[in-house]
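Why does residue order matter? Because the sequence determines the fold. Keep that principle in mind as you read this record.
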Amino acid sequence: MRCAAANFRWEQAVSDARAEEYNAYIGDVSKHEDWKAEHKSYVGSFVHVAKDHPRSSGSFMAVNGQAHLNEQLDNTPLLRLESIGHLLEHSLVSPIANAFWQRFYNSPKDLHKDKLSDDSEALRTDFVEQWNKQRIQARPMFATFLNNFEGGNLERLAKSDWPHILRDRLGLTHWPSTTGKPLAVALMCYTLDEVRQARAMATKKGAVASFARPTVLDGEMSAAFIPSPLLPGGKSYGHTLDLACTEVPATFNPELLTFPIEYQPRHIKALGFISRPHALPNDEDILAARNRHVQGLQCLPDCGNFGEVLA
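Structure:
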């Protein structure tokens, strides 16, 4: 509750227009539980919009212009970590999903090939098509830059313990959610140009940006999310909470929201499991990590007054 309130106090990238839209939707609430429920409903209605909805996610609408990034960013690869365990258990998708997993989990190099045998290529294509059908919402996609991992060398990253490295660096405190049950994940890689093309081809109305920095209004309430100072120049990314960092960070992992794309077989670069818990198992640990993160943000140029250390 304290973290949620702090996040809203510290957020600098929400425009007055979007704040008014949010406040009008939430209305008057007197308890945190009610606020949290209304906030979740707002995200479902304005951010995680259905694919067949005529309007784009509010994250890319003019109302969120204060958080939009420079549209002319140089083309570069983006990374995203996807949980796919639900596909392996889905009654309609599981036959294809499990066949795909069995074929490529132990042959990861094949995922980097442009062309496979007809059967393997058909399996890869069918799996991605079925996966896209299950992605019924056109929600913003949280991503980061490949260049921040292994010097931008994707093959070297794929050979590392990338499931846990990315889980920790991206602040995904909810993975894995079930103790003792490994979580199947996929390493996804796509480009800024593909995002720009997806927005240009979209039939939804209202999107004026392909990229935005995450704000408190772009996801459900989470203590692992911390707003970032609003910097000039259209390159004011978010900064993820590193779950494995035990000191005040000197550098940060950038995070951005991208306009949703349809996955292609080439976007899947590796398969793996998250099998170990992260280093922040309780509220006290998360609060201490947040405080270290904020202290690091305060060391950025002209950011000494940003946020506060919560006692």
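The chain has one domain: 2-69+77-298.
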